[in-house]
Write a structure and sequence with these properties.
Distance between the termini: 51 Å
Strand content: 15-25%
Radius of gyration: 26 Å
Oligomer: single chain
CATH architecture of one domain: Distorted Sandwich
Structural class: alpha+beta
Number of helices: 18
Helix content: 25-40%
Shape: elongated
CATH class of one domain: Mainly Beta
Largest sheet: 9 strands, antiparallel
Number of strands: 23
């Protein structure tokens, strides 16, 4: 080979190499994305340390000048805040309600009597003193000078606190507070001064968990240094030397004196028992090697973040992508505890037959986007998730709408477990009990749920079957007819894929019920009475009420699975395209998500799919 040819080969190789992004994917993740916003634009994500799908999400609970506006603190953290109230071990992600926030730990310095209440241990912080990446969070507490570092395993959290020299080191464990400083509706706390072990439970009664009387989380914890003094705070009074307490307003204060090395604390959670929490801790964090646990957490993120190779673009563009990919793996939650045990919707202990058991399914929010992506990236885990839904139906009686921990929440509308399961099956994911899944889908679609059951199934289902829509008299939003029809289409797809053609034909027929609520005079799907008349007056711009979290403009595009039928209702394909273009054109200059939009709004679920309808229409 001539020398010039060799030079050309080398130059070409270097050029190709430079096109490939060599930055570690985890370094491109900004875990703070989604943690700010105002009003309806609040993202409700947290920089908490966790492993993929981990049950422990150990991170800061914050406040703004001592206040925590409810809509901004669904997950405990809000980027606009300037104070830290403590570090709790559980939280949900990306949700619109407030829950969890169990087992708040907070390091402090000084006199225990002055620090045991939140007003004594809350601390200012600044974002310049924060550092976070997948599996790790740290911050310097401005008022005390303490540096806090956090990492996590599946069921346990690991804390490392660096106290300033010459100060009396304290650790507060507050079981009287959960997210938003409330929602803790009972707790028990025990301490063994010889072993440095703490254990007990906290019942949280948040927006979801209160719907079944609260959920009890157990914990087991250890600290690395000898405790010089210990006290229990119970209903407004510090009890020095007390080693146990039960109630709704209890906390513990551990006093260590002047520490010349970091204090380590590790705590595991369980939905089963204190002993199970202990097993979780001993298996997942068997020693005091914080760096090793951190390294394991960071390694757990490598494979998920390497699933998709990104080339080109700016660092900021790649950061947006990688951060979104990171959030794909935050929730649902793998609640399979050590030994393969889990607490089912029947509140009994079960063993996962194979794989893992998942809960915290925000299905109304995720069946359109998160799960279809997981089907591609994580087919085996997706099958475990679908099997988890089937187990919930077996143990609780019905496929769930929005399960969290070991309860039904009955949140949102429709029955979109139907679509999640059917979507997986038609894409070839069948290593779960598909027959039982279909049986339970048919049960919910055809029968009313018994009165008093925590899951309400499809409210008004007999009226829906009788009239072909949900009449106003059934007291359900007009959008529910559109959702039921959508779910019926999914059941039809599932039945056809499993060779149940008669059932498939019936549900394909029902999938066209959405047409029965279309008013050709107004050009929208409207509330309709049992006698067939459309309810008046009507406004397509009215948000909510007749349309779950949306307007008639946004819900117009729900039944995308039937573009020909939709086009026929609207007077032909060209008219449908024109309406769709206008739907997007009216929000070209929208700059804020703080308030609901009337037209296309990618910040909420009902019309997230609308852009793809152009492709269905050949545009």
């Amino acid at each position: 080979m001539a020398r010039t040819d060799k030079i050309l080969v080398v130059v070409a190789f270097v050029s190709i190499f430079l096109l490939v992004n060599t930055t570690p994917r985890a370094d491109e993740v900004n875990v703070f994305i989604g943690s700010g916003g105002l009003g309806f634009g609040v993202g409700s994500t947290s920089p908490a340390a966790q492993v993929p799908f981990g049950a422990v999400r150990l991170g800061p609970d914050t406040a703004w000048h001592g206040l925590n506006p409810i809509f901004a603190h669904n997950v405990g953290y809000w980027y606009l805040d300037n104070q830290i109230r403590g570090f709790s071990h559980t939280r949900l992600s990306g949700i619109g309600v407030t829950d969890y926030g169990n087992f708040r730990f907070m390091p402090a310095i000084g006199i225990p009597e002055k620090r045991i209440e939140q007003k004594g241990y809350i601390s200012r912080f600044e974002h310049k003193d924060e550092s976070a990446r997948p599996g790790y969070y740290s911050v310097v507490l401005k008022d005390s000078g303490i540096k806090a570092e956090l990492t996590a395993t599946l069921d346990a959290g690991f804390h490392r606190y660096h106290y300033p020299s010459g100060k009396n080191a304290l650790l507060i464990i507050d079981l009287g507070r959960a997210v938003l400083d409330r929602y803790a509706c009972g707790a028990e706390l025990n301490f063994d001064s010889k072993s440095g072990e703490l254990w007990g439970w906290q019942k949280v009664c948040g927006s979801f968990t209160a719907r079944e009387g609260g959920v009890k989380f157990y914990f087991f914890a250890r600290v690395s240094e000898p405790v010089k003094a210990f006290g229990i705070y119970d209903s407004g009074r510090l009890k020095p030397g007390a080693n146990s307490a039960a109630g709704t307003k209890i906390a513990a204060c551990l006093e260590f004196g002047n520490l010349n090395k970091p204090l380590l604390a590790k705590a595991a959670i369980s939905l089963i028992s204190k002993d199970q929490a202990r097993s979780n801790l001993e298996a997942q964090i068997p020693d005091w090697d914080f760096e090793r646990t951190l390294s394991q957490a960071e390694h757990a993120w490598k494979a998920p973040l390497d699933k998709i190779e990104v080339r080109g673009g700016s660092f900021d563009q790649r950061a947006i992508f990688q951060s979104a990919l990171y959030h794909v793996y935050v929730m649902p939650t793998n609640f399979t505890e050590q030994g393969g045990f889990y607490s089912g919707l029947d509140k009994q202990v079960h063993r996962a037959e194979a794989g893992a058991y998942y809960t915290d399914f925000s299905i109304w929010d995720t069946f359109r986007n998160l799960h279809p992506l997981l089907f591609l990236l994580e087919p085996e885990k997706s099958e475990e998730m679908m099997q988890s839904l089937v187990r919930m139906a077996e143990q609780g009686g019905y496929l769930p709408r929005w399960p969290t921990a070991n309860i039904y929440t009955n949140c949102m509308t429709g029955t979109f477990a139907d679509c999640l399961l059917a979507d997986g099956v038609v894409k070839g994911l069948r290593r779960f009990d598909t027959e039982k899944a279909l049986d339970n889908m048919l049960k919910v679609a055809n029968e009313p749920t018994p009165e008093g059951h925590p899951y309400s199934g499809r409210p008004g289902i007999l009226d829906y079957i009788k009239y072909g829509y949900l009449p106003v008299e059934s007291r359900q939003p007009a959008s529910s007819t559109l959702e039921y029809a959508y779910c019926d289409f999914c059941i039809g797809q599932m039945a056809m894929a499993l060779g149940k053609e008669p059932a498939a034909r019936e549900f394909y027929r029902r999938a066209e019920f959405y047409k029965n609520q279309y008013n050709p005079r107004t050009g929208f799907f409207q509330p309709r009475k049992a006698d067939g008349r459309f309810r008046e007056p009507f406004s397509a711009k009215m948000w909510g009420m007749n349309y779950t979290e949306g307007t008639a403009y946004q819900w117009l595009w729900t039944n995308w699975y039937d573009p020909e039928g939709m086009a026929q209702l609207m007077g032909g394909t060209e008219k449908m395209v024109s309406r769709l273009e206008n739907f997007f054109a009216k929000v070209e200059h929208a700059e804020s998500n703080a308030l609901p939009h009337i037209y296309y709004w990618h910040g909420n679920e009902p019309d997230m799919h609308a852009a793809y309808i152009f492709d269905q229409l050949g545009r």
